[in-house]
């Protein structure tokens, strides 16, 4: 879904986000989109929400303003939005004075968005760049405005629910300066992204996201703020990037172990990783091979990957020495 868009007793507390009548909305000074605006713009543009792109449009100004406040966006923030759709969240971001880029996969919506901003918030038009592209294909070359790694930016988006996790992980991998995000996703996805070890929904997305930083639930959102109303619950996930963990080689090795461990999550690490982890790696990393992958923290996966790299490097060096000696 986008604006074009389990069992754990320690589950984080969430706050329900429902439509509210804000002073700005009541005064009509915010120029944000309500239900009638959304339907009119969609009709004018010949747009109907499609399941292909996971489109459910936010129709409540109070909700998008709360999302922007939770993301701590202000006039100094550089924002990336994925899946802006008809512009509900886009207008709320621009209302803060922020400069932003919106990446939209659907050509009619990408073409319409600047017109919507010009109609409802013309003074903000110069602070918006629209890119008609699949978010999974963008990088610093496509979005040069985010290429300077010394200048952090944030992702604020109502993500397409069917590809939310790949979008998040892809952007974090390609943009070292993606410093934080606040995204709306399906509630089950939010639970997985923020899950802790030992939770039955803790899995590949949870651990891979933890490589980059710390995620947490930031609230739940009612179905009645969307048009059309979705058949699933929605939730917000917040994220802040942590210190650099290591090289690209280490990240790739860690992610391979994560994929293998959770590919057979009911098996012990020894059984699930027997084709991946050489003898001695578990001992070197201080990890009991009879544990299951679902009990390991990201730090333990990194330690195991480091041990694997070290042992493989040692073995390669030994082979090279032997070859040279024979020569």
Helix count from the secondary structure assignment: 12
* Rg from Cα: 23 Å
How many domains make up the 3D coordinates?
Answer: 2
Oligomeric state as shown = single chain
How many beta-strand elements? 10
Return the average pLDDT rounded to an integer: 88
CATH homologous superfamily caption of the largest domain: Vaccinia Virus protein VP39
Order of helices and strands: EHHEHEHEHEEHEHHEEEHHHH
Distance between the termini: 62 Å
For the record, the CATH architecture of the largest domain stands as 3-Layer(aba) Sandwich
Going across the major beta sheet, what is the strand order?
Answer: 1-8-10-7-6-3-4-5
Overall spatial form: elongated
Structural class: alpha/beta
CATH fold annotation of the largest domain: Rossmann fold
Q: What can be said about the biggest beta sheet?
A: 8 strands, mixed
pLDDT below 50 for ≥5 consecutive residues: which ranges?
4-29
What does the model show?
With 327 residues, this protein is α/β, with parallel strands linked by helices. The protein has 2 domains: 35-241, Rossmann fold (3-Layer(aba) Sandwich), CATH 3.40.50; 248-319, rRNA adenine dimethylase, C-terminal domain (Helicase, Ruva Protein, domain 3), CATH 1.10.8.100. 39% of the residues lie in helices and 17% in strands. The protein has helices spanning 23-27, 35-45, 61-70, 88-94, 107-120, 164-174, 187-193, 204-212, 248-263, 269-272, 281-285, 298-326; strands at residues 16-17, 57-58, 78-82, 99-104, 128-132, 153-158, 178-186, 213-221, 226-227, 234-241. It has an 8-stranded mixed β-sheet with strand order 1-8-10-7-6-3-4-5, sandwiched between helices. The chain has a two-stranded antiparallel ribbon with strand order 2-9. Helix 3 (61-70) packs across helix 4 (88-94). The chain starts with 15 loop residues before the first strand and ends with a helix. Pfam families: RrnaAD. GO terms for molecular function: 16S rRNA (adenine(1518)-N(6)/adenine(1519)-N(6))-dimethyltransferase activity; RNA binding. S-adenosyl-L-methionine binds at residues 56, 58, 83, 104, 134, 158.
